[in-house]
Design a protein that fits this description.
alpha/beta; 157 residues; 3-stranded parallel β-sheet; 7 strands; 4 helices
């Protein structure tokens, strides 16, 4: 039986069978998810010798959510991500009309996700234009609440 990932003073406490909510996504999302979940599950099984496994919890957003609930981004989805602390999502459609400019921006704002971390490192055997790629090991912090990622638009005039 799965458990939620929790936060302690020392950091995240990840149980042997964490519950991780996922949004399958729109468009190619179902195809990407079907392949991705197999990779995630195989990686966890290999890394932990079968002693750990993820319990996936589907939550709704995008077209699938709208078709089933009439909402593009149900509050139950936001609640699941808040309660479980860790989640994953596929590509989401941008609804035309309906008061939401971008589901991705709405998710970031509702969950206060203000930073996008992008680890950068070189993998042996991968061609690189960098002279000494083995020295490449950095993290890019991309701020999500300003500029075009804020999703703030103003009327002209």
């Amino acid at each position: 039986m799965g458990e939620a990932i929790t936060m302690t003073e020392a950091g995240l406490r990840v149980p042997d069978h964490p519950i991780i909510p996922f949004i399958e996504g729109d468009g190619i999302g179902p195809d990407i998810w079907a392949a991705s979940v197999r990779v995630f599950d195989a990686a966890v099984a290999k890394a932990y010798g079968g002693q750990r496994a993820i319990e996936w919890q589907e939550v709704l957003a995008g077209q699938k959510a709208h078709d089933q609930t009439g909402e593009w981004l149900p509050e139950a989805t936001i609640d699941a991500f808040r309660e479980k602390l860790v989640g994953i999502k596929g590509p989401l459609t941008t609804p035309v009309g309906g008061g939401i400019r971008s589901l991705n921006v709405a998710l970031r704002q509702k969950l206060d996700l203000y930073t996008c971390l992008r680890p950068v490192r070189w993998f042996q055997g991968v061609p690189s234009p960098v002279r000494r790629p083995e020295l490449t090991d950095m993290v890019i912090f991309r701020e999500n609440t300003e500029d075009i990622y804020a999703g703030i638009e103003f009327q002209q005039g």
